[in-house]
Amino acid sequence: MRLDIRSMHLALDNGALDHIRRRFEHGLDHFTHYILRVRILLSDVNGPKGGVDKHCLVQLQLRCAPEIVIMEEGVELFSVINRAAGRLAVAVSRAVGRARHRRWQEYHRRQLA
Fold it and tell me: Which residues contact 105 (CB under 8 A, 6 or more apart)?
């Protein structure tokens, strides 16, 4: 699975990029064959001023379901990334479960017809 990580007004070092990759790959490991692409956009709205200004926008396209979009914001970048990755894993699990259930229903409809 390839992650497309972009940042606006935010410098990401190798340690931050490794953390982002590990966090998202860990949550999505079971679903890699369903995932077409993952885009992660990180931004710092206020720059060095501080405040609730770190944003993480994640767009994930699945083979079997509509696109999933998650947005998180907060003060600390790593906590924003962790929350977004956790919410994304739950959303993907639900979407894949729904798609499997639909396929199961269609299969049984055909068998009964």
Answer: none
